Amino acid sequence: MTVTEVGRRSPDSSNRRPENSDELVIQARREVAANVIELTLRRPDGSRLPDWSPGAHIDLILPSGTVRQYSLCGDRWDGHSYRIAVQREEDGTGGSKEIHQVAAEGSHVRFGGPRNNFRLAPAEQYHFVCGGIGITAIRPMIDQAERMGIEWRLLYLGRNPLRMAYRDLENWYPAQVRTHTTAHGKRASIREWLGEVDDTSMVYACGPQSLLDALPSECDRLPDQRIRVEHFTNDSLNSAPIRTDPYEIVLDRKGETVRAEGHQSVAEALGDAGIGLITSCSRGVCGTCELSVLAGEVDHRDTILDDEERAAGTCMFPCVSRAASDRLVIDL
């Protein structure tokens, strides 16, 4: 399955600021569901912001220095503002709580990006599936499909209707949007909702791991490359490494070689050698640390590259990935 992911950040990323960041002012704050706030962000001088496409996210740099990634969920055609929605996570690592506490209208934050690992590919029909706050990544895709006159449908799943942001989509598009809550224990059948689909369609999904784990069997009538997902976690971090022996990292432009232990990621080994990399999530989900690979084989641990891109072996995300060969040459 083609997998792309933008996720909430781990504690390890809290002091890693994106290399290029800029200042934004919070123009507006509103509650869009229980424990979910929407923030409208602009430059202090009102100047134009970088363009973005559906599926993109920004790095939000909080006053504490914590860095978190959030999907852009506003109007991509409005070049002067960004919108994000933040769900307060009581059991999270603190980033969402900080945003809910300090994000007042008129206050300033810094941002990096935007970046996009979850792009909307051409198709004759889109089937969108989201769970909970995953709606934020899907919402701009719906707008894009509408503007292009492409058929689309949305299955929006949640446990509690009061916690489901942007449920008004059901009012705007009653024929295309189906919402389903599992408060009473009954789960929706994605297979039944999909019905008859062919390889001219694309399925895009974003939400909790339980939803995405169920997706392949529910969509087995479609080729893997027609299914794209965005996770909030990276289970591959817990899988056994391909190799346990030490390996060498060759920094081609620097002309240096670093020895790494078999269990170490490239970023960990370089950090031990005093060579810093720009990273953010430390979990292989945001794409900040992408490096070009010039030679060697990679033990990929990210959730961004698809099978074809991994097989090509031309790039890697060193915050989690390591060598699968004795020697790895990178463009650094």
UniProtKB/TrEMBL annotation:
Its cofactor is FAD. Keywords: 2Fe-2S, Flavoprotein, Iron, Iron-sulfur, Metal-binding, Oxidoreductase. Residues 1-22 are annotated as: Disordered. It comes from the Bacteria. This is Ferredoxin-NADP reductase. Signal peptide: none annotated. GO terms for molecular function: 2 iron, 2 sulfur cluster binding; metal ion binding; oxidoreductase activity.
